[in-house]
Amino acid sequence: MSARLATAALLVALAALHLALAWPGAGERGVIAEEVTPYLPRHPVVLAGADGGGVRLLPPHDRPDHRGFVSTAQWPNLAYVGEHRTWPVLIKGHQSALGTYVGIAAAPVLGDGIAGVRRSSVLLGLVLVGLVFALARRLGLGLGLAAAAAVACILSPGLLFFARTGYGFELASRVAMLAALLLATRPLTARRSAALGLVLAAAILCRATIAATLLPALLLLLVHPAHRATPRRLALALGLGAAIPLLFVLAVQAAIPLHAGTAPAAKLPLADLAARTAAAPATLAAQLAYVADPGTVLLPLVADLSRSALPGLVFGTAILLLALARWSRARAGDGECLFVAAALGNALFGAWLYGDPQQFQLGMALEPLFVLAVAHQLQSLAARPRLLAALVAGLLAMRAWQCGVLLAAERATTNPMLSGKAQRELTAALAERRPGPGDIVTTTYNHVGMLEAWAPQSSDPPLHAYRALRRGRGEDGAEAIAAWQAILRHQSARFIVLSTGPNLFDGPFTDNTATGRALVSALPAVGRRIVARSDFTCESGTPCLALLELSPRP
């Protein structure tokens, strides 16, 4: 078999494996607020606040005419409200809607509603896997090890989880990152320099924090002796990559005032950067544990399961230290060098951006480079083919086990945010009751977009009250009680949605139990009472969501 035919056969097999794992069940998993809100035809209706002065809505629902550009605190932070749908511009200050448009364009062809959006993400994941294979080959890995690296990505719980969601901006940034690195593995002609600059700009526009991973690795490739770029072509590539996102942001900010706190870098604490630098080693440790075993982060989220981070940390640290040792002796493969540079950049920028080592977002972009580093280290054993084959088989078996554990955990999820069963049953129960305008009130951030995704035909969207009810509004709950009283006086609020299961993503600003207590305390003052309660369980059979029906307003 010719090398070209073997490569084509391997790519077909890789695509089949990825699609077999990621495609099924795209329309069944629970909806995550941040994945679905950029794709909603209209902005969700969110309370800006509720108190004695009444209830106030976030833009664009704070004015009669919703059309035109709107900046708001709810994702998407900047959008254009057209006649037939909302077109996102900035999902968040540092995340444009560039990757989101893949789902908006492809979803109608791939399936209805959230299923089509997620299938577009599956296809983005497929492109990512293909780029890992191509980059592995370009960096000198043999056909077998390049295929093994791609399989390791396919079986990664991290990629598998996000390739079945609507996080288009996240996946697109990683696709563009790998495409940029692939372009940089060849000497830069004028045309290739311009292409590299455009792809680099696309990656940063999709998610600016990708630069923490991409730039250290890219610069390392651009100064590589085999394809060192001339200063003019280097300036063209890097200049385009930096100028396009910067000019885009400046143009947006000059034309449309962004909502308070949503501008790019609005929450970056410049005064604390020096102090946060001390968190870089812990950030590196957390990312090494994640890339070696994403289940350490995902299993607690999916099914409230704990897994020790120590084995992943030990393995990830061993790969990094071995890469450093081999680099110092001029024996490291290019994949190892890229991983070292990106890991150190991630650790520093992760500490600066978040100050919390448990924020694993940057580690997601690091994972393909980790896989390439492992593959290059395995290639050094080419003279001992039996040992090499055994190690490859063992590592892929471990990845397959990690993948299987995640899939099993999803089938028994305890998380309301990920429970398609509970969310669909709740939506169906509400549809049977035929709610009218202002009848439905949700209570936590992760309810946003949930009902809209499962019942997009509804003309009366729910009212999301999480901002008015968030934790910290009075030690005794008085402010939450006052907020409830304002909501109940000014809205019909017949149906209240509560989360009764655990969710790490609710964050420290949410206390679902306290929200329920505040509602009960607020009811007598407004002459209302609970007349019915329906509970919906997760796939695990544990409590997940609750629907309270209140008596009509007096």
UniProtKB/TrEMBL annotation:
Keywords: Membrane, Signal, Transmembrane, Transmembrane helix. The keyword Ribonucleoprotein does not apply. The chain crosses the membrane at residues 122-139, 145-164, 195-222, 234-256, 308-325, 337-354. This is Glycosyltransferase RgtA/B/C/D-like domain-containing protein. The lineage of its organism: Bacteria, Pseudomonadati, Myxococcota, Polyangia, Nannocystales. Residues 1-22 form the signal peptide. It comes from the Bacteria. The keyword Transmembrane applies. It comes from Nannocystis radixulma.
